[in-house]
Automatic annotation (TrEMBL), chain A:
<keyword id="KW-1003">Cell membrane</keyword>
<dbReference type="Pfam" id="PF00528">
    <property type="entry name" value="BPD_transp_1"/>
</dbReference>
<keyword id="KW-1133">Transmembrane helix</keyword>
<comment type="similarity">
    <text>Belongs to the binding-protein-dependent transport system permease family. CysTW subfamily.</text>
</comment>
<comment type="function">
    <text>Part of the binding-protein-dependent transport system for molybdenum; probably responsible for the translocation of the substrate across the membrane.</text>
</comment>
<keyword id="KW-0500">Molybdenum</keyword>
<dbReference type="InterPro" id="IPR011867">
    <property type="entry name" value="ModB_ABC"/>
</dbReference>
<keyword id="KW-0472">Membrane</keyword>
<feature type="transmembrane region" description="Helical">
    <location>
        <begin position="80"/>
        <end position="101"/>
    </location>
</feature>
UniProtKB/TrEMBL annotation, chain B:
<dbReference type="Pfam" id="PF03459">
    <property type="entry name" value="TOBE"/>
</dbReference>
<dbReference type="InterPro" id="IPR004606">
    <property type="entry name" value="Mop_domain"/>
</dbReference>
<dbReference type="GO" id="GO:0005524">
    <property type="term" value="F:ATP binding"/>
</dbReference>
<dbReference type="InterPro" id="IPR050334">
    <property type="entry name" value="Molybdenum_import_ModC"/>
</dbReference>
<feature type="domain" description="Mop">
    <location>
        <begin position="294"/>
        <end position="359"/>
    </location>
</feature>
<dbReference type="Pfam" id="PF00005">
    <property type="entry name" value="ABC_tran"/>
</dbReference>
<keyword id="KW-0547">Nucleotide-binding</keyword>
<keyword id="KW-0997">Cell inner membrane</keyword>
<feature type="domain" description="ABC transporter">
    <location>
        <begin position="1"/>
        <end position="234"/>
    </location>
</feature>
Amino acid sequence: MSPEWQTVWLTLKLAGITTVLLMVIGTPIAWWLARSSHWLRQPIAAIVALPLVLPPTVLGFYLLLLMGPEGMVGTLTDSLGLGTLPFTFAGLVVASVIYSLPFTVQPLENVFSTVNERMLEVAATLRASPLDRFFSVVIPLARPGFLTAAVLTFAHTLGEFGVVLMIGGNIPGETRVLSVAIYDHVETLEYGKAHLLAGGMLVFSFLVLLTLYLINGRLNNGNLKS
Amino acid sequence: MREPGILARFDAGFERFRMQVDLQLPGNGVTALFGHSGCGKTTLLRCIAGLQACSGRLSVNGDVWQDHNVSLPVHKRPLAYVFQETSLFPHLSVKGNLDFGYRRTPATQRRIHPQQVIDWLRLSRLLDRMPERLSGGERQRVAIARALLTSPRLLLMDEPLSALDQASKRDILPYLETLRDTLDIPIVYVSHSAAEVARLADHIVMMDQGRVVAQGGLQETLARPDQPFALEEDAAVIVPAVIRERDLQWHLCRAEFEGGSLWLRDDHQPEPGTRVRLQILARDVSIALAANQDQSIQNLLPARVMDMSAEQRPGMTTVSLQAGETSFLARITSRSAHQLGLGPGMEVCLQIKSVAIIE
């Protein structure tokens, strides 16, 4: 595989794994945030939103400390025989999950809060257990929100730069993702190669968003018409 | 010991009132929870369903659903609930909605099957439609069918007709009557419409501010002069009767009840032998000391005064009377009551100005 393709593949793999993990992790968080009136709701909502406002380097810096050999997480992973996470692909996945969390949770929370409580009551009187209600009623009604969350998470992880640089470095085939490669090419004045990757990213992002809007438009129209 | 019927004892504070009820409802037929909006009747229904946390005790035909240390979650209670407004799942077709509860009911507990309810409620042409493309009446029919397909041991209905227009109501009521006569399960029906209650209910629970103010069989309870609704403008009694003959010349028909007969306008042209419920408004009943044939009112019945309400509205008295086995209410002015010297035990003559068949 050429180094260019290796970079593209690694980036897509990172974004894909992050998106899948975040759908699993983010859904219960978003559901809780949308439903709960617990006093911890606001603090948790603020923590989830932190990556939106923090400079990625700040986030990356603390993650580096936390996951490094002296950090809490680092000591734990080391004692489990996993080594430390910085400068590995696994470390990038962990960082991306945290970095992209709000892009999953916020669209899901929005769509969950529009799900009519009555529908859940109806499902309960029709013998559906709480988990069953979630899968048979909430998820179908929240489908557009899931699509938005997945696409935003995927696209946001693709464009990650600061956090990667802080904790992942630039190891080809391990942590060298697109945004870092483009930066490298520009540094070394290889504008042709930079154009190839940057242009590819631009077109790809546009196509992803276009697809999202088209599908969401159809879902909404479908709901109105049928 | 298996206690028949529904025993519900709740005591819990809510935002607008305190719910304090101790009810024993029959284990079959339709019980109406009746009262003004805000009286707590819907809250009581939600407590029975388990949709609303409410401390107390509840057992249905011997099975305890709630007690101080246990409360079955809603999805474990073998009940069905029909909500006031449209509650169909918008992402499922009519068929998908019908199957939702049926699939979740253990096969051994299924007593009602899709084809039955599709026939009862005439849904066969609607099965492939999405809920958005149904009329209000059709949606409520689907919601009722969907609820029945869980083969419930108790059917709860929260004003299922109130969100519908008059035409849809007329459309659905016969279906509800069919259910009442076909199903062998208790139905608790919340309503603030005296007409619906009169037509459907066998038993009535009148509520006000979270408390039960009167309860019992429909006819006896409506005929009690001390029940709060007897004092309202449209207080009425319900009399079950059978049409015996039709007088085509005068456009009248004769309905026989326990204790006499009444002539009424032959508008519905019922066949002799038809069972009907008659509604007689208290304000359409007057009292004479002796039968006076010399007047326009056709329906005169010998009756005995049973009870008289204290004067609640200035100048008006509600009198309960019995003709044969049947109770009536009469709303007269307090001055007439005084001048006639009415009192319990007196034999009088009822003059009934107007009788309506409840459709």
